[in-house]
Amino acid sequence: MAGPLVGVKILEFTQIIAGPMGCQLLADLGADVVKVEPPGGEPWRLNAQFIPLESKTYMGLNRGKRSLAMDVSKASSQAAIHRLVKEMDVVVINYRPDVARRLKIDYATLAAIKPDLIYVDNTAFGREGPLADRPGYDIVVQALSGLTGAIAKVDENGQPLTGPAVADTTTGYALCAGTLAALYHRAKTGEGQMVETSLLINALTIHMSAFASIPAADGVVREGFLNALQRARESGMSYADFLKVREGMLRAAAGGNVYYRCFLTKDGAIAIGALSGSLRAKVRATLGFEHNRDEPGYSPQDPAQVAVDRALVKRIEELFRTKTTAEWDQILTDGGVPCGSVNFVQELLEHPQIVANGYSVYHEHELAGPVWMQAPPWKMSKTPPEPTKASPPLGRDTDEILSGVGLSAAEIAAMRSEGAIL
Predict the structure, then answer these.
(1) Which of 4, 38, 61, 73 is deepest in the core (most CB within 10 A)?
(2) How many domains is the chain partitioned into structurally?
(3) CATH number, domain at 33?
(4) Does a structural domain hold residue 170?
């Protein structure tokens, strides 16, 4: 094991995506992560099992960890955890606050046992307010936070048309960053502390300026949108119909958007990204058209300009359909236009850019055999992360972990006989 966190010990009480991902990042950095999960396995281990108690979703979020299979509701388990906490630097948890208190693994209880403990707490909605004790998953938080409305839609059958679990994954990074900051503070002062984050705050962070209200910059547009939304709700307009109204507003605000979008090609699709005047000029020069987008007085709301912009968009869309994605990639690259083919993730494992940078790693799983997955998201010249282990089979390390904190073979056997451990 290598990495800057070698010697740091972490006790993980998390499941599904955000917590496991954050702890996997910490394991990638060299920490010894002990994952506590129920004797039957956490839900993500049981999701779409391809062999008993192993799933691709679990294996992708739990590499480099040790597995302690334990029923935390048992008094013997809680006593063992309290012994184990004395050896730990960090506890990471994503239980609801009321559950953590009931299981005697809340911050107040564990900090009394180890005062310099770093306790990293993740909830769905934050610890205060009317939703504090509600369970919540990525899809729920995406909906409540406005992400579903902003980057996706809901089809006529009520199915959310969303992409990856972005609220969960960004929270995983936040958990990792909060842990690192707290470890740095403890190294300077000797103080432990509680670190909190939530799916909700990270979902709001993804919105960036869209969540912010700056009246001088967006007062008119924001008020116009909220008024339109209120009128739609008062009139009983369906959600699907309001999405069409909103799309019209967005198109009007976007102007002649041929500079930052995806285009269908002869055999696929390609994205271009030109967010500066100089890059937009390169788009025009490369594709051979004129447009007043960067001239003084350009107004995307002017009816005459709207007509010009719509005609331009239609013409450029037709142009892109005349060549293949590879041909456009070469043409745009030669013209200095940032671009990229629209790929499917399943075809990227052998992509030359992925291979050249070492962005995939190989592990041998004890039960499943060969595993290829994404590499750690950092390269470090002095303390390079080197993940060496696939995710652990359920309960593989239970006896080793418990004997390591002084439990005898007889005590471990007694816990097993009462169903406290696997």
Answers:
(1) 61
(2) 2
(3) 3.40.50.10540
(4) yes
